[in-house]
User: Fold these one by one.
Assistant:
Number 1:
Amino acid sequence: GGGAPEPAPAGSAGAGGGGNSGYTFAMVTHETPGDTFWDKIKAGAQQAATDTGSTLKYSNDPDPAKQSTLIQNAVDSKVDGIATTLATPDALKGAVQSAKAANIPVVAFNSGIDQYKDVGALMYFGSDETLAGQTAGQRIAAAGAKHPLCVIQAAGSVALEARCAGVKNGVAGTENLQVNGADDSSVVSSLQAKLSEDKSIDYVVTLGAPIALDAIKAIDQSSSSAKLITFDLNAEAAQDIKDGKIQFSIDQQPYVQGYLAITSLYLNKKNGNDIGGGKPTLTGPSFVDSSNIDVILPFTKNNTR
Amino acid sequence: MSQTVKTAPAGAPAEASNRVSLGLSNRLLARPEVGAAVAAIVILIFFLIMAPAFRSPASFFTVLYQASTIGIVAVGVGMLMIGGEFDLSAGVVPVSAGLVNAMFCYNLGVNLVVGAVLSLVFALLVGFLNGYLVMRTGIPSFLITLGTFFVLQGANLGVTKLVTGSVSTPNINQMDGYAFLHLVFASSFKLGPVTVWGTVIWWLLFVALSAYVLQRTRIGNWIYAVGGNAASARAVGVPVTRVKIGLFMATSFLGWFIGMHSLYNFNTLQAGNGVGNEFLYIIAAVVGGTLMTGGYGNAWGVAIGAFIFGMTSLCIVYAGWDPNWFKAFLGVMLLLAVLVNLYVKKLSTTRKVG
Amino acid sequence: MSQTVKTAPAGAPAEASNRVSLGLSNRLLARPEVGAAVAAIVILIFFLIMAPAFRSPASFFTVLYQASTIGIVAVGVGMLMIGGEFDLSAGVVPVSAGLVNAMFCYNLGVNLVVGAVLSLVFALLVGFLNGYLVMRTGIPSFLITLGTFFVLQGANLGVTKLVTGSVSTPNINQMDGYAFLHLVFASSFKLGPVTVWGTVIWWLLFVALSAYVLQRTRIGNWIYAVGGNAASARAVGVPVTRVKIGLFMATSFLGWFIGMHSLYNFNTLQAGNGVGNEFLYIIAAVVGGTLMTGGYGNAWGVAIGAFIFGMTSLCIVYAGWDPNWFKAFLGVMLLLAVLVNLYVKKLSTTRKVG
Amino acid sequence: MTDTLQEHADPELTEGESLIEMRDVGKTYGAIRALKGINLTVNAGEVSCVLGDNGAGKSTLIKIMAGLHPHNEGEMLVDGQPVHFGSPRESLSHGIATVYQDLAVVGLMEVWRNFFLGSEMTGSKFPLSGLKVKDMKRIADEELRKMGIVVKDIDQPIGELSGGQRQCVAIARAVYFGARVLILDEPTAALGVKQSGVVLKYTAAARDAGLGVVFITHNPHHAYLVGNHFIILKLGQAVLDKHRSEVGLDELTRQMAGGDELTELSHELQR
Amino acid sequence: MTDTLQEHADPELTEGESLIEMRDVGKTYGAIRALKGINLTVNAGEVSCVLGDNGAGKSTLIKIMAGLHPHNEGEMLVDGQPVHFGSPRESLSHGIATVYQDLAVVGLMEVWRNFFLGSEMTGSKFPLSGLKVKDMKRIADEELRKMGIVVKDIDQPIGELSGGQRQCVAIARAVYFGARVLILDEPTAALGVKQSGVVLKYTAAARDAGLGVVFITHNPHHAYLVGNHFIILKLGQAVLDKHRSEVGLDELTRQMAGGDELTELSHELQR
Ligand SMILES: Nc1ncnc2c1ncn2[C@@H]1O[C@H](COP(=O)(O)OP(=O)(O)OP(=O)(O)O)[C@@H](O)[C@H]1O
Ligand SMILES: Nc1ncnc2c1ncn2[C@@H]1O[C@H](COP(=O)(O)OP(=O)(O)OP(=O)(O)O)[C@@H](O)[C@H]1O
Ligand SMILES: [Mg+2]
Ligand SMILES: [Mg+2]
């Protein structure tokens, strides 16, 4: 046995493409620290910064009020552009407006597809959470799902609620469950409890790759016959897709979101480009299942998918 | 021996007194907030060096704004802690209050001012309930308010889901009364390149009021007493129950205030928010020199604590440090602040006089 | 008066004694854990009625498993609280310990057992540091451990990112030593339809040990004393510093243990996990009758507290109640448990004898 | 030093009037019986001494009068009205001031704040009106000086004072605020000879100003110097209850200790 | 009752040997000076009485010997060796046991646990070896009975005892564990006549068993009954330091209070 050290991760592919453009871009998200998903957004953004020779300043806070202060913080720092998530567009509108007033271009990514223009962002890169959920819902409905369980790992999160609402659009019988995403043991126990309480659950929909791994354990231990799908990917989850433990993943390609957000700012500054021509640029939903997992699996190990 | 008593003119020492009179610098150093202030200055200078982006008035005022949103509730939490109690529900009360206001008015089409008053009543009720249960049952406030914290957190989500079908409130900025309330709770003005937020001014007002109450009024005396030794305070006639319930209500009031700010600043509220803020308030109070066990502390100290926390958390970003290490920096800064505070206090008690 | 002293045979009452001898039921009721036990039974019966899915042995053991993952660290946190201190870093220490083990072994290709020992040393060091700083600086443990909490939380993320390039550890289940460690920390066996987890058995062992130490050993005596009145304990010769540092280290040890469980049960760890668990431990201890201010409590009480919390949080799911209201139910149940506990305690002190 | 008492005494007191009356009062702490069947009257202008062994129930008795613990048997009348104090505040509002055995001070608070705690001097009735800090400091200092105590700094936290200094603060406070009844639980326990003398004079002065005084002590000499009325408790029950005219110092001492202790001891210990 | 002392006294003590010696010791609490230039010797088989007004520095003096606060001027020798105690544990390990003025008990813990706190009886040296609970309860009970105190339930939290009962527990504990030096800070303050007598006899017994005793009191009569040696403190400095042979009770009393207080008082208060 014994694991070999991995090759150096993200950033090793084509470094230093753009020389030194001198730009500083701020990225502000509503990340709760420690999620593999956000890690990929950061990896993409960092790669873009490296490629365009600019500097990236990343900051995050799940509380909209604090996220808004962080945007203000970027404005105070006189950055050359701001990329932000718009999970709570109304709450961030003021801060985005103040960036505009300071002539700092703002692009949105990951969330806020319907409101980004309204808020004042120039472009949008990402998928639509509700749409992604709905697509997933429709796909499992076609596979015969009657009573899926949608697992929310952070109570009250707008994005997660939107995904579950989307799934419910696809399959009317969808039920939600709240778990404590910061504690794997607790996630397993809660899921186990739910699966034994309601034997009619035929699909489990997890909203993050780490939770999917816990769900596999829970399904196993409660001898449930429910099938599992998940949002997002990581190396282990990709392996489980290959092994057939996870039916498929709805991937919104976070690496691309981060990469495009920063690149678009660069192009906008440098060249006045407007990617998407006034329309949102969709990075997903893209399905990862047994049909394409072999191609994708190596990339997940690089932390780029 | 009785002659000294009879002949001594009022105010003159009765005997060759070895009374100590402390020098100004010692008196100053002994004030509970001075340690925190020194710590704040040390960290301020540190970040002025480390974070060039912080060296503008605009940045400074952004920090002040951030500090004020923590600091306003921390004023109440600090007083409560001086009074010997905790309030873990202080983080979600603002959200609950905002939700009550927004949903009540939106769904019934009522003027927002009515909703604001209603939500104030609601918040005061929560505070009263916290205090009443703590005093009535004798269960530690940590547990009682943990209970209300969970209940409110659950209810915020449950009720919002029920009423709006989503986890956030609708946008209220088109409703009657919005302009007025926005002005009161969420206005800001430009001073050259600098945006000054109303909350900063409100914050200073609340701190000044709290400082006055604590130092200069009978109620302040009682607050220190119930926190320092509730049994003794009761024995000499301090109405312990009323004081503590009052403190819980004051905390809820300030929670309501900041809830109104969030609502009228952002026009919409997320039902899941606020969780975790209760600890920021406690941190601000403790960094500012408030004793966890009650009976000691000071309003300006708490304000400085909030400022230190706000400054540190934003300046790590201004300095552009690796966000993965954010919390680690924050932790080190906090420990630093507390150590400096302690060192200053030690200095004040070990310095000789004369 | 001295004659009574001189003639009294050892052990016989020196005078017409009005000594009280309490009946069995009063003695029983006065034990700190009985209130919690009654509360647990009340809630158990309640959920047996409300949640049909809970009525199977398998469900009961799932609850036990859940309780054990909280309960193991709560044993340490409870003892620490009896000793008058808090440990807010108890939630992230398990994750840190697991990360140290996983990354050290994976990146250097070392046998996992070596890493486990190393991470034990690391955890004990963190505990020692917590205790040492608290005793050395005199800063309240709430603040010191808040500092280490932040630092560890940041370091978990920062180091993991640095080492693995991602925020979770690689899968270690193919490495040397895995089988053995999995057996020790994360095994389970089937008993008919029921899965019994090793952690449950470990938990009971730790609780029994802790109960023995607290009630029957010199160290236990010292723990109660340093928590009840550190100044007095010091004055009669209790080595306050060593006792408190020892308690911090015991807490870290148990944190390490549960960290090993997570690692060898899930084979991979998220660097951001564990945050928030520190409060679950404190909740378990306090629901189990431990005094927040120190000096009073009991190991079985803490265990029952963990059980109540685990049961409540899972049974809400078993009962199929609206998940949006989850926290609200949890809050109500907690308050209920504490109230029953208090009621039983009151009963024990107001009942007349004879 | 009697000025303070004269100034603050309720002018409506008439000597001999019954201020507190206990009828068959009893008290249990859970399973532990501390008092049983106590009958006692505190009259204006008289000092009632309560004496007794350790654990006899003396402190429990006065805690009932002070409103700290409610009694659970019998009845208590204050100014002729049956009362059941829910808190010391109620007792204070009847003009009853108490020095507790454990002093009831808040260690972290300044000496002067402790002195006025619960009875602060303010500019007006308005709850947020300012404290008269200067006046309060001056008065606290004056009253302490009258007892022969000069604290080094009136702004010092009271927890830093010596045991006897703390006791003096508690006594001075009670004397200053007691308008009708003054209750002293072992006030001289931690005091030096000088201060003890002052306290005894205060007690006498309070009596002369018409207050009812309850005086608990272990020292029969002290008791006999000022007392009008002596009650000895034993295991929670009154075993002696006599007027000064009915009992001499010798009998009192004998009753308290079963013999003229000090003399006997000095024989025994003589070398 | 002297059995306890005889049994536990260090057999190597020789009368007159110097156990603790203080040379020019001083102590400040921050800006406040509590002691200055104290020279004092505690000899085996002698009782050194420390007397003085409230706030004179008596408790501070014995806290230095007990290791509770370190001194910051001068030097202290124990058994001839210069020491600077970092904690009371070190002092205890030299056979020095102390009764503090504020008693140093843990209110929530049972009486017997408090009695043995810091010096528990265990089966073996192994840190987790079981406590000898039965023995400890028996001994605690016996020792308290020897002082004439019967607590209602030895398993009661000590916080529920009366003030005097708590003081008896603290004294009995020190007597039981004191092997070379016994320090008593106002031990009779809260005690009745009977118990005070017992404590004085204990003090004499300790002296006779060869221990060095430091006895703090406000009562010159008590002091003169047992003392060999008298030190009077005033504002932190020693103003009198004499052997029993050099000073009479009258002079002692006069020195302490500036006059024969009690007699004077009784004249003044006589009605
Ligand atoms: N809070 C309490 N809980 C239980 N028992 C108590 C409590 N307070 C006092 N007691 C018991 O009641 C009895 C009387 O106590 P009290 O304090 O009234 O005695 P006392 O006469 O004041 O003694 P002393 O002279 O030692 O102060 C004692 O046996 C004591 O143990
Ligand atoms: N912890 C402390 N901090 C500051 N000052 C103190 C402290 N302890 C004692 N003092 C001061 O030191 C002086 C001596 O106090 P100490 O307790 O030694 O007096 P004492 O002689 O024991 O008096 P008493 O007879 O009243 O017990 C007093 O003026 C007191 O205010
Ligand atoms: Mg008493
Ligand atoms: Mg003293």
Number 2:
Amino acid sequence: MMSGGELVIPLGPYHPAFKEPELFKLYVDGESIVNIDIRLGFQHRGIEYLAQKLTVQQVVFLVERICGICSTSHPTCFCQAVEEAMGLEVPDRARYIRTLIAELERIHSHLLWAGVALHLIGYDTLFMYFWRYREPVCELFEELTGNRQHYAMLCPGGVRRDIDLKKMRPKILKVMKEIKEAITKLADAVARDRLVRARMEGIGVLTKQDAIRYCVVGPTARGSGLKIDVRADEPYAAYKELGVDVKVMTEGDVLARTLVRVLETLESVEIIERCIDSMPNGPITAEFNEYPVADGIGKHEAPRGEDIHYVKLNGTPVPERVKIRAPTYANLPSLVPQLIGYSIADAPIILGSIDPCFSCTERVSIVDVRNGRTITLSMDEFNEFCRKRKNPLKVR
Amino acid sequence: MIDLWVVGLSIAYIVLIGLLIAPNIGLFLTWIHRKLGARMQWRIGPPIYQPWADVIKLLSKELIVPETAHRATFLLAPLLALATVILAFLIMPFVGRTPLAFVGDVIVVIYLMSMPALAAMIGGSASGNPYAAVGVQREMTLIFSYELPFIMAALVPILKARSLKFIDIINYQLGNGPLVFTISGFLAFVVMVMVMQAKLALPPFDIPEAKTEIIAGPYVEYSGPLLALFKLAHAVMLLVVACFVSNMLLGGLIVSDWSSYVVILTDLLLIAVKILVVIIIAAFIRFYNPRLRPDQAFGMFWKTITFIAALALILSFVPIPYF
Amino acid sequence: MSGLITWARIKSPWLFHFNSGSCNNCDIELLDALTPRFDVERFGILLEGSPRHADVLVVTGIVNRQTLPRLKRIYDQMPNPKIVVALGTCATSGGIFSEGYNIAGPVDKVIPVDVYIPGCPPRPQAIIDGIVKALAKIQALRGGKR
Amino acid sequence: MTKLKAVLEGFRALIKGPFTVRYPFEPSPPPETFRGAPKRDIEKCTACGACYQNCPTKAISILDLGKEVAVDVWYGKCIFCARCTEVCPEEAVKMSLTYDLSTYNKEEVRESVSMPAQRCQICGKLITSDRQVDKVIDRVKILPLPLNYHMMVSLCPECKRKQQATLLLGLRVERVPAITIPVAVSEKK
Amino acid sequence: MSFKVPSNFNELLKLIEGELSPISVDVRSSKRIYVDIKKEDIRRAAKLFLDLFEPLRGRFSTATAMDCRDHFEILYHFSFSELGLVLTVRCKVPRYKPEIDSIADLIYGASFIEREIHDLMGIKFMGHPNLRRLVLPDDWPEGVYPLRRYG
């Protein structure tokens, strides 16, 4: 179990750094990490199985509850997959509303992440500032969609609620202006602060080669110089009309990923401004009555990266198979090259820097792929280790 | 020959000042930290009775000694922490001259001030938790790195006043003006403020109990009354550190003349202002810095801060006014 | 004396947040309650990292088979007296996930729950209401052990 | 000195005052569009079961209370998705602005709407509510239907099938005890 | 690389037809291609696409396993951003012998999904470096696969 001077530091399953339960076992030598083993699956709820029991309209609510932070990504993805299978054409207004909600969600998610990341390096004041500026977005959501989270806006064929743009337009623009100002101000306070830089620069480096090999997506990939963004590569919703400028950094460290997110937030603000300027009128849902035997793939650029759903319909309202791949699922394996060699103190911020959303991932365990070595130590074994009153200090 | 009433008076002094006044002022100072932080973070913050409620609640809770812990040390560590900081407070002059003053009290206080960290280490390693183990490791390395510059900075007023007694240092400052207004004194002040953050385990040096890395470090297994003692010790430590810095560099916490009401009032006000200045500086550093990584913190102490301390020490020998 | 203790307990509830398999939203709304807009620190509420320090255990999400033993352990680790709050629809009844194969049941199947806060997710205002209800329960306990 | 920017923000916060809502001391109402607990218009609901069938979490149930039938929404399981408001043919369900549902007893947080039940005239099984039967009769009145229609509508599907089968075979139809529905309908009108 | 990197949709199709000898190629639209191959060819396909990842900004997205009564079907979804398409490779795995070669040692990103399929569907990935239980709790009974629809 223990070899040499290694000390096992469990990071989780219940750890204040994460709001979700996951167990990362860090094998450390002194302060530096020599190996990691990740035991996930504390949030496995069997969503793919449950999706095979509900009708298509109900599955939208189920996939919405895969993850709370990106709670419009999964429904968008699922609805697009269903629409592809059915050959449905989404009305223009619905496409614009989807874009608006998705981009608002990206802003809320990135601000949330920025706050949590700074909390991870112990900078609580900026955490509070970021969340203070995120709050108006939540309130906007509450007014637009009826809830602060879980917007329940999408249905196959369009959106469920119309937006009263006449009333909401000034409010949205006001919040956007506030966020733009706050982000420019706070991003400076983050990126130019010497101590913050010391914690982020050159930490958790993921090279472009590794990024390709591990198939990472989203800001994690874009921070490593991979220019991939579903919004630009395979435009859906209204992104073709509105246009997206993909932000890429090449350093691949935590700071690069942070800056990518900051720039993306500003880009989202601009997309929203364009979106509400050019939103067309018209119906918001496309009617459908038949359920074909067909399959479809839906893709969406969630705040954390590319989200992909595969849906197979079997001629009934209940889908035959729903496959969900959340972005964190793709990004998690890349933690192995990112973590090894850095200190325990860096671990939370490196883990945080991929913006992990374990409830999306809801499964998984990491193997050190390079040498295939895994050491598993269950919680009970670990307790045993504690109970023997072998002070880890004395083991050294 | 010891008079019985002197012993009685000393005990009364210890009980009154040490056990009643010191913890209460300390808790009030922690409230200032929390409230100021909250207001600067756009929040309302806790009400003024909050620290007392926290401590009373913790004292009333169940006392748990984990199976994995070494019982006696686990129980004694928080007591040690609280006792030493209160003793440190008692030795220092605060408002009046302390009856416990003696030659070399500065040295004793410096040592007593590092005791809470040691107590945390003892308690942490007795609790047998891996997070605590990492916390202890970090605490230990941190102590090694900040004690040297701290002592060097403390030597500046000692050398200026040519005495190891608080009261002499204060008297020297009463004659020549607070030391912080000299160059070496100011540098020593900067060093002490940084070391103070580390001693109080506040950001950027809250490394041993980093909440998001190792939960609460050495305190992870502590609960109920034992945790309350640690919290109290921490609160008193806040006061002790502020007193130490004020006494050494800011002109001392003493009423210079007990015969004039005006002097008493202004001096009392000055005492409050001095402590508040130190506390608010600590709060600002705390709220506007991220936590450093252990190796960065050690590097900072060993390189920059030790260098500043050495510079202050050298400059204090220069026989020019305001050096 | 017991009045003072009850007062202190009501004025200083420290939370330990346990996510037993939720979708994150309840967790975020709980965290949101700490941030400037709602700032529950004005009631003395703090989020603690160690269950040993906490008085109130806030559980979010449905309990799955993987988290079941850990939830029990965390509950045992908390010092008495303790209050358990089930936050969100999933923790209350299982919500949309109640028929999954990896599900052990809602929180009250595993540990006794004092206050339920349904909502998907509950507004932070509702969370504040729920915690206030929990505090009323502390008052009812009057310093006794449960 | 970029740290200054953060500190300045702190001073701004000090001057402008807290951003906090004074919630428990002052009301903090949700916006008009808020999706709170779904509330049912007792006058409009016919217990048709559309919401029950479409509810993704099965928070809605139709309860058989003997003489009455109840539509029961358990907020402890409701996810406030507003699916029931969409599918309700009577537009009887609306999302209210109620958000504070915290409780000591989770069984308490439910809304039950009950109305007279229509039971099968032969086997006594619950079919639906009186109101729903009225509505169906109202709707199909204009259509040319067999005379025994009223009788047919007050039977459960199983008995209906048996009756139809016997009719088709030319056998004697079992006598239904009392045909009360038309009276009930006219009384209500 | 022994082949020319395709620069458009048709060249990619040609390359696949030439290199993989697929059973059938189903072009749904300019964004979706479904390719049926024999399960023995999956490693060859993975190697081919791995080489295309860098020039075409591609990646392995995910794999879907489906229970089709008499056999299992595994769909490997590859995304190629440069061409803006999703390429799905379909393999049939017989029910009596649910085994297929692993591609996890070529494409690291496939490691999780293979373990997950192994957990939930009971398909064995030959040559996977670490095919431990992944999603399900440790006390889950052996031989019970929650996502299998037909026994």
